[in-house]
Amino acid sequence: MAARTKARKRAVDLLFEAEQRGINARDLLAERLAKPVTEAPLNQYTADLVEGVVAHWTDINELLATYSQGWTVERMPSVDRAILRLGAFEVLYAQDVPEGVAIAEAVELARSLSTDESPKFVNGLLARLAEVKPTLA
């Protein structure tokens, strides 16, 4: 597994855990950086991803709510929300990640972590965000 793929998985894990525990993902990240719970400490890309999602939290949630047809953000499975927030951050804000790569990585995370329907949903929603990105200011 490539380093960035692992970093994305760990970022999704942190985003998911923070939501389940009802704490800010930035606070959980700081806790894990100060006191790692695994042998391998979090790498910088994981930290950058979590920081980026948190920095754009409101905009990302609004865009997910706007473009997810028939689904409120709250109704989505928790793991899908974490994957979509990460994918949306990379699609919309990460300058060094091609949109197609961000979408493919998010779909793969959905395939390995969520329901059978999730990869298609994640792909469609993130592709829509990539499509409307030029119109967002």
UniProtKB/TrEMBL annotation:
Gene Ontology terms: cellular component: cytosol
InterPro entries: NusB-like_sf (IPR035926), NusB_fam (IPR011605), NusB_RsmB_TIM44 (IPR006027)
One of the GO BP terms on file: DNA-templated transcription termination
Annotated keywords: RNA-binding, Transcription, Transcription antitermination, Transcription regulation
Record domain NusB/RsmB/TIM44: where: 6-130
Signal peptide extent: none
GO molecular function annotations of the record: RNA binding
Family: Belongs to the NusB family.
Matches recorded under PANTHER family: ANTITERMINATION NUSB DOMAIN-CONTAINING PROTEIN (PTHR11078:SF3), N UTILIZATION SUBSTANCE PROTEIN B-RELATED (PTHR11078)
Protein name: Transcription antitermination protein NusB
Species this chain originates from: Pedococcus cremeus
Upper lineage: Bacteria, Bacillati, Actinomycetota, Actinomycetes, Micrococcales
Gene transcribed to yield this protein: nusB
